[in-house]
Amino acid sequence: MARPQRVYEAWKGNNKFLFGGRLIFGPDAKSLILSVSLIVVPVLVFCAFVARHLRHHFPAYNAGYAIPVVALIFMIYVLVLLLITSAQDPGIVPRAAHPPEEEFSYGNALSGGTPGRLQFPRVKEVMVNGMLVKVKYCDTCMIYRPPRCSHCSICNNCVERFDHHCPWVGQCIGQRNYRYFFMFVSSSTLLCIYVFAMSALYIKFLMDEGYPTVWKAFKHSPASLGLLIYCFIALWFVGGLTGFHLYLISTNQTTYENFRYRSDSRPNIYNQGCLNNFLEVFCSKTKPSKHKFRAYAQEEVRPPTVSFGREVEDEPVGGPRSKVEDDLEIGSDLLKISQRRNYEDVDVEMGGRRSNEMEGIASAKLVTGSESQIPAIGSDVRVRHSSWDRRSGNWDMSSNVLTRSASDVIERSVFATETAHPSQAETHQ
Q: Which residues are in the Palmitoyltransferase DHHC domain (predicted)?
């Protein structure tokens, strides 16, 4: 007997799981190796080539030893925030097993839809803070996305309060990890400032001790020069990102909303004031995940199949009696049609136009026969123009043709009956 799958084993997104579903990462989780290297390597270089020389300049209470210790603690703090941001559920919305049945409607040919096909609106409106907001239907997750939710094409999930997908973190940034993402970015900025300031201070001490020019001080400590350049460049990225997200938090926006609706003049219905916006991000309780990745996956229950056509009773196929009954029914229908006036006269009486002249009238569909073309009568089928009576310019079937066809059908039906039941035919004779 096969072992039942857990939720993370049957996951339909592109996420990667570690430690039995306890940690969830994005599909580009390998980028974390680069991000960790960009944090750890500069700090280790700073401790090995700069901080250990600075400790002698603060002999009182051995305060100089605090410089490398602070750098290492700061580094560990940043790495923990990076792990929390990238290894937890960002707010993935559960998928549905089938489209929302309550929104179904049947297609109508008059409205341009396919008759009989189930349809539902792609967009609907919900009330948020007293204003109507449009939410879209997600074909992949088969749900109407909640407000401020978007589908990440990289992770292949719908994420609540979707901000963006960060390649450096290897995870979507959403409702449940945005706070830690901002703390990671801002802490990285402070770490860069700390290393930059300490490296510059060491160059200052070197210039006071016998290296009167900056160039000579840099030649004596090339590690300090490399750290100054690296931290200066990094500050443009992480520092600029910190400032940008401070603006987004103060106005209660997401990166996705800012880039998508920047040119629109629509009001921001989520803005509650600068103070309340910051309290919402940093002081609100993190919502629990809507997924239990280690739980056993439940089998999807398929909805019952909807029949769009009319029910037809099963009949034996190939028997002579069924063939006779079908031919007799067609023949009787043809006789009725032959007695009607042509369709142009009916159209004149009803006042209809040429475009809808066939509506409400039983139409004929040409069926290829062995000797002649026999029109089969059906419902809701438009007449296909035939070549009969083309010389006269009238594309309608004449009554003579229909009568002839009906009589041929009846004769063939009688012949089939005699062939199928020869004993009954001799008895009648």
A: 136-260
Q: Which residue has the higher pLDDT, 393 or 131?
A: 131
CA proximity to 152, closest of 247, 27, 259: 27
Q: pTM for this structure? A: 0.67
**Ordered DSSP codes for 156-209:** TEEETT--EEETTTTEEE-TTTHHHHHHHHHHHHHHHHHHHHHHHHHHHHHHHT
The whole-number average pLDDT for the span 240-261 is 94
Residues with Cβ within 8 Å of residue 158, at least 6 apart in sequence: 92, 93, 95, 138, 140, 141, 143, 145, 149, 150, 151, 152
CA distances from 115 to 118, 120, 309 (A): 9, 14, 10
Whole-angstrom Cα distance, residue 11 to residue 293? 9
Asked whether the CA dihedral 205, 208, 214, 216 is positive or negative, the reply is: negative
pLDDT in tens, 5-46: 899 998 999 999 999 999 999 999 999 999 999 999 999 999
Q: Do residues 141 and 93 touch, judged by C-beta distance below 8 A?
A: yes
Average pLDDT for residues 352-356, to the nearest whole number?
43
Q: Give the CA distances from residue 102 to residues 107, 118, 425, in Å, rounded to whole numbers and listed in that order.
A: 15, 11, 60
Active-site annotation holds for 166: yes
Give the residue from 387, 334, 389 showing the smallest Cα distance to 362: 334
CB burial string 189-202: b at 16+ within 10 A, e below: bebbebbbebbeeb
pLDDT digits (tens, 9 = 90+) for 40-88: 999 999 999 999 888 888 877 778 889 999 999 999 999 999 999 999 9
Q: Helix, strand, or coil here: 23?
A: strand
Catalytic residue among 149, 158, 166, 192: 166
Residues 6+ apart with CB under 8 A from 243: none
